[in-house]
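From the shared-data thread, chain only:
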Amino acid sequence: MIKIAVAGALGKMGKEVVKAVLEAKDTELTAAIDINGQGTDIGLIVTGRECGIKIQTDIQTALDTSKPDIIIDFTQPKDIFEHVKLYIKNKTKSVIGTTGLNEENIKELKELSKEYNTGCLIAPNFSTGAVLLMMFAKQASKYFKNAEIIELHHNQKKDAPSGTAIKTAELMAEENSDFTYNNCPETELLKGARGAESKGNIHIHSVRMPGYIASEEVIFGANGQILKLAHHTMDRSCYMAGVLLAVRYLFDNNEFIYGLDNIM
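Structure, as tokens:
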């Protein structure tokens, strides 16, 4: 059995992760961590039945007492960098779904992972469909010189653009360094009208709106044709297959990995 701790256990994603870990035949929940709910049985909140795991508020205490093989973190962007450093220094493998890490953060965590010989898998998106979209977008980038990305999320998402959109742009830029081929000189009449510029000069447009969970569209253009790739999340349970895939891979391997596409 793979012993699992979940950080951010009371969040929308955290609850789904707890449920998935409790239901999977090869995983065992050993700790549930959240800033709220100290002492409450997480099973009562997630499934309506006690599971014997009480919520803890301190990560270090949870690691010391439960000794998980892997900790899954879906907490807050502002905290995630320090969280991952703590996991690595405790030599606890981690699967990270919280976005908000920049290139410098990821580079530092990769070096720390190597220093402490402790695996870590960070994925901007655990939906297998969304990861396939990224892979398809990279493939299409070999044949198009113009592209833009639109990402749409619920209005409680704090970071923009999404980690998925950034990762998509990074993959596309591996095939083409400039997706603004033959664009005319531009003047924004309102600041930000053309979105953020990412790698490959790809413009990313972020939408925050109630009703959405997570959607992404990659639009490619060329003379006489438009190619649009799109993925829409209807329910957060769609992420769980990817989360468990990451857990099982990391349990058997001791690497630093950025992006679920690297193990699919």
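The first helix runs from residue 12 to 23.
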